[in-house]
Structure formats: structure tokens, C-alpha cells
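Give me C-alpha cells for this 523-residue protein.
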Amino acid sequence: MDPLLIARWQFGITTVYHFFMVPLTLGLGPLVAYFHWKYVKTGSERFKRLTKFWGKLFLINFAMGVATGLVQEFQFGMAWSNYSRFVGDVFGAPLAMEGLFAFFFESTFIGLWIFGWGKLSPKIHAWTITIAVIGTWISAYFILVANSWMQHPVGVEMVDGRPVMTDILAVLFNITAVLTVPHVITGALLVGGAFLIGISWWHLWKRRKDGIDTVVDGKVVIGERTEGIRDKEDFHAWRYALRFGAIVALVGFLGTAFTGHAQAQLMIQQQPLKMAAAEAACEDTTAFSLFSYSTNPGSQNCADIHTVLKIPGLLSFLAHENFTEEVPGVETLLKEYREQLGTHYPNQPEVYGEYAGQEIQYTPLVEITYYGFRGMFTLGGMSALMAIYALWITRKNGTGTVPASNGIKNLQLVALWFPFLGNAAGWIFTEMGRQPFVVAPNFQGDTAVMMFTAAGVSPEVSAGTILFSLITLGLLYGVLAIVEIYLLTKYVRSGIVASMPELLEDDEDTNHDEKRDVLAFAY
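Here you go.
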């Protein structure tokens, strides 16, 4: 067994799993804060219901995100100790800032928000969730600063074989991070918007299925049912959430499209081989590939790659904003990489293990980068189309609702997952496309500041040990996945009343927040 391969599988599985929670936290949090501020300013029951319902789901996901995120840090020391020693001087600052500054913001003000119903003044209470959301975004910024340094190391000099930070501002404002952060945030907003669309659509559909709402002469007749407090305000709350989610999803899609385009242009300069593989471009070309395939899956040999459909000039336009300047292909770039970085791993078994002295495969797995890149923007575009449809179908003078069709409802529920999968595809493309480097060389700076992935794994940890931890963490994460899906499904199906049990209380005193246990909302 290859310790490096197992360690990569472990980190890949746990990271992708964790990142299913991260964009929902980053994207749903600001929407909850928006609902809360609308409630504070208007006093509308509708916005109170929306705040508590979506806030409940936000808390469940936030808790799971924290639990799964903690494992990431332990992996650095357990399976990637050489890598940790190499990047420690650089990563120490942003990761410390994330832990001591951003995470304390999140945890402290999340707690104040949970316990603050009926205890804090309305505006201060709304500020607690706002500050908590700002904390999640700051946390994402510092994490992405660290990852961006791995993609494009800056602000350091090599001392005794290790990069030592000489300019923290260069690290914090790395151009790669400057473009990555808004791309991730807008991608998260697309996730949050799609989340609102899918769940709100289901509740509006359920009201029609249960005969509460009917459509007469093209107009919705809004009904009421005391069971579960499914009144007219319930309808308006779901319709508002659906349309608001669709607008947020469209804004998120446009943001990811523009920032993603800028990222791709930058990537051609910083990691040209990654982008060449993403286009299955073996030779210098101006054409954008619509469909390519490999006759030998898993091969890193250009002879196995075949392009069937392509648009001449489009790749040049996307990369250089003209139709004639060629984008370097894999074969051209391989010569440059080999000239600057060598053809074989150093013959140092204590560092490179079984890879010592072997030929370096600079070309990433073309299928992963090619389909990951396309899956990312295809799934995002499909989410945007579903958002446009949701806005169109519910447009009628404030009373439009969703169709009674079971098939369309199922399609919207499936579409809820599109931006989650798109985010995962984007990160798989980003990380797999960087291989064989764990810290990619900076071709505009000092190419000595780089590290091969083969050199990053812990030398004293056996393949069996890493395999054991992979299986253990896989089982643990499987259990956590079941718990999260169960909790989210339970509260989604139960509707707003599950987050506001006070609606069921037959009590003349309406100030339920002051009477209930302070943990009731969290429960």
C-alpha cells in the first residue's frame, strides 16, 4: 500500500465532506441575518418565522461544520508532518488569526444569538447574528489565504530549505486570495439561495397537495389549516423565501461567473499546466473544447486524449480577450516544467519514499481537471436556470405559487444539490489540478519555494496506520452525515412550527420568548 495515496484519499474525502457544510454556513448565514433585521425593522410575523426556521437549519449545519472541520487540523500533524514543518512559518499567522479572531467571533456571537431571544434588545440581538456571520466570512478569508499561498507562494524567502515569511501583507493580500475569496463567497450565496428555493418550493407544493391552497382561474386562493399553523402567513413566508432565494442564487451565480473568469485568466499565468489539462489542450491552441475524452482512463499521456468538439478562438478570448493568441498546451508546458524543475524526484528515500528517483508526472489527471472544471460551471448554470424558473412561475401579483406537479417538485429538490456539487467539483479541480505539488512553484518569483506532494507525507506513519484512520474517520463522518440529514429533514418537513413551538401555545400572553427555557430555540 502507498502511504501517500491513502493520505491523499483521506484528506480529499474529509475535506470535500467538510466543504458540503462550509458553503451552506457562509451562504445561509447572511440570509438569516437579513430576515432578522427585517423582523426588527418591520415587526412582521412573517420575518420572525423566517428567521427562526432558517436559523434553526443554520445552527444544525454550523455545529456539524465545526465538528468536521476540527479533523482537518489533526491531519496536518498526523499524515502530513513534513508538509506542516515546511509551511508552518507561513500558515501559523493566518491560521492563528482564524482561530483566535474569526472563530471566537463566530462562537461567541452565535451563543448570544441563541440565548438572546427575549433577553437582548431587538437591535442588539440582530447584531449578534450579523457579527457571527461576519466572523464566518473572516474565517473563510484566512483559510483561503493559506490555501492561496499553496497555489501561489509569495511573501517568503527560503532559509535552510524552509520558506520563512518576510512580508505578511503579501501573504494576506496575495492576488490569488483576492480573487478566490469573492469566488467562494458568491458560490456560497448560490448554495444558500438554492437551499431556500428547494425547501420553500416543497412547502408551497405540500400546501397545494394537502388542498390548503388552490388555483382558480389562474389565481391562487390561499387557504388556512390550524393543524401545524399552516395559515395565510405561512404561505406568504414560504413564497417570500422562495423568491428571495432565487434572487440571491442569481446574484451568486453571476458573482461566481465573473470572479471565476478572472481566476481562470490568473491561473493561466500562475499554473498554466492546470488550465491546459482543464481544456484537454495537448498542443498550443485557440480553441475551447466542448467535448474531449481519454481512450485510457487515468492516463496522463496526451496521446490518449481526443477532442471531438471545439470552438475555434473561444479559449483565446477567455484567456487573453482576443481570438488569435494561442494558449500553451500540455506538451509545450511539460518542456518548460522539466527544464526549470527537473525530470525526476531527488534520490532521497527518507523524504520521497518509494517515489525517490522516479520520473515526475507533471500533468494532472486530465479527466479530473477537465470534467471537474466543466462540472463546476455547468451545475452553477443549471442552478441559475432553476432560480429564473422559480421567479417566473411565482410572479403573479404577489399571489403566484408553485405548480402541483410532483415531477417539477422533485426536480427542484434535486436542483437544491447542484451548487453543493458544483462547489465540490471546483475544489476537486483546484486541488487535483495542482498535482504533483502540495505547494505549487511561483514561476513569477522564486521557483525554489515549492514542495512536491510526495515529500509532504509523514515519513514515520505507515500505510496501515493511515488506512485505519481513513476507515475510522469515514465511519465517523458517515454517522455524522446521517445525523445531519436526519435533523435537517426532520425540521424541514415539520415546517416553521418546529422552530416556533410558541405558535402552538394557547396562551393570552404573547411574550413567549421570555417564558421559555433559554435553550428551547437551540433544542
